[in-house]
Structures are given as structure tokens and as C-alpha cells.
Design brief:
Oligomer: single chain
Largest sheet: 9 strands, antiparallel
Number of helices: 5
Strand content: 25-35%
Radius of gyration: 28 Å
Amino acid sequence: MASSDCKISPIISIFVFFLFLNSSSVCPVCSSESGEFNRVNQTFHAREELEKLKMIRAHLMKINKPAVKTLQSPDGDLIDCVASHQQPAFDHPQLKGQKPLDPPERPKGHHSNRMGSENYQLWSILGESCPEGTIPIRRTSEKDVLRASNVRKFGRRITKPIRRDSSSNGHEHAVGYVTGDQYYGAKASLNVWAPRVANQYEFSLSQMWVISGSFGNDLNTIEAGWQVSPELYGDNYPRFFTYWTSDAYQATGCYNLLCSGFVQTNNKIAIGAAISPTSSYNGGQFDISLLVWKDPKHGNWWLEFGSGVLVGYWPSFLFTHLRSHATMVQYGGEVVNSNPSGLHTSTQMGSGHFAGEGFGKASYFRNLQVVDWDNSLIPLSNLRVLADHPNCYDIQGGINTVWGNYFYYGGPGENSKCP
């Protein structure tokens, strides 16, 4: 018996071993539990996705207003012509039931040229425009919102792009700026490019910032310019944009008309729409003018884009510090560097070429001015220039009789000196 037991023992051991290996298939209870877990898990994810979709559609219903007319842009955008009094701004409790204000008096010393100034967006390149009494709004799609890293923060900046130590959060700048006085507006002309953006989570822009408050939680900014942002728009076209915040990009403000705030008064300019034409290296240069100024009568901050076209205004009540005046004005470029593969990004700023290459090759800002307490445009007296990483993107300032205060700026990002 002892001998027989010894012979059987290895067979039993092998059987037990295989039984253990295949426990999920031979144990009906275990198999049942595993299947149930998978079913519950799938149901949970399905419900989660459904809730996300419901939230997106509710948000789209809020920002995509009923259209009187819809136009198709060559780049695929849908432009809705929305009754002026139904635009997103009038969802704000302090604007409900109101209508856009009449244009204010422009700053003294301001000269505008309206010739050909309204046909520099792709959607209106064939002369299309919205009817009087309506404004053009780029329709936001489900795809637009789904590209956002956070649905609740769609249309908002997640980080603070203005601070001088901003390189720590991936934002890099080459800017000219003035500070130390009271500013009631700013003006500049800048050329438009189509810089390469390395991935969906980065952007490249050129803009003006009108700033007040500290760089803590009470920062107020008004911003306008052009940007290439695949995450926000789903393509690589340079687009006219606006932004504002009254609490350092935390809970207030947004891009364009993606929240209640900016009041648009123009029926020919679509904020967020692609700009055309653009500048070419060693070729034709296309620039636009931007003017932001505070209406002395009502205190609202108005925006002019192009060569004399009023776009609309930011009501003064949106702000805390900017209810009175700005304490800093910045002009220049900004990119997001997400350090792909541990290297500096190859996202370009401006033309993608350094400032030293000059006209026709580098990006520029020219005729820089500010608005003083008397609603007069005046030249800058103390322009400073600063680049966070001059080996990646740099800046060179100057002054002459034709361009007044100006600077060249930009760069390619990753290169032998910017690894």
C-alpha cells in the first residue's frame, strides 16, 4: 500500500496543479463573479459616457444660440447668424433683457482706414456676412468639446500665461511690455502667420494683454490677437480670438463667445474664425491692427480689429481692477511647451524664425501705442522686451519714424541651442 500510495501521489499533485491554473474555468462561482464584475464595469463606463454626452449637449444648447441664417466656411466652420440680443453675453444676470450699446468716441489721434478691412476671414472671403441686427458666431461642435482635457473648463485657459516665471507651467513668451503708469487702452499692428504646432495640447499665439491687479488670484486681463490651437478649433489655421478673466483664469472668463461676457456689435467679424491671408517667408506680409480702449463715458472696454472695424466690448462690471484702469500692457508671442519625449517642443512662435532675420522673415509688432487718461493715443516711452527662453524664441526691439515703437520676435522652438 505504501508503494502504491507513492505512485499515485505525483498524479494527484499534477491534477491539483492544473486545477489551480484553470480555476476560473472549472470554478463556476469564480467565473460567474468575474463575468458579473465585467458587466458592472461596462455598465458603469456606459453610464459615465452617457452622462458626459448629456453634459456636453446641455453646454452646446447653452452656447449655440438659434440662428437666423447659417453660412458654411471653406475651412469647414459653420457660422451662425444670431440675433444680437440673443448672443451668449446676454445670459449674464447683469445684461439680461438689454441690447448692445452704441459705439463710443474713439481715442484722439486714432486714424482708421476702412478700405478692404472686412474681408480677411475665410468664412467671408466671398463677401458673405450676416444680416443687420445679427452677429456671426462660430458654431461649437461635440468634437470641439470632446477635444478639451476637461469638459467643464472647455474654452478656458487652465494655467496662468502672463507671469514672468511662467516657464514652470509650460508657457513661454517673447513680449514687449510697459508698466508703471495708468493705461486706458493699447494699440498695435502685427503680422499674421500660420506657425506649426507640434501636438493637440499646445498652442501658438500673438496678442495684446491689457492687465491690472496682482499676479495672484485677483489678476484682471483683456486679451486679443490671433492663435493656432488644435485643441480649441481642431485645425492649424490662425484664428482671431479674444479672452478675459477677473480672477487669474480660475473661474471667470473664456475664449471668444464661449461664455457670457463679451458683447459683440459687428455683423461681419466672427470671433474664433480663421484669418486669411497670412504672411509668407520672404514673401508678402499681411498684418492686422488691434485697438482696445476704455470708453470714458460708460467705462466699458471696446475692441477694434482690422482697420477701423468695431467688434464689441467687455462690460466694466466683469472686472474688479479693470473697472478703473490697467497697470500693465503686454504685446507679443506665447506658446505652450509640453516637453514631448522629454525634449523642448518644436512648436513655432510667430513665423518660426528668430527676431534677427528681420522684415519678411520674422514676426513683428509695430506702431505700439497706449491710451492715456485723456482718451488720447500716445507712443510708448519705456518699452521693455523680454524672452523667457531666448535660445528657443527671442525678441529685439527698436524705434523709427515709420513704425514708431516696434519689435521682431519668435523662433522655431527645439533646435541645437534649445534641446
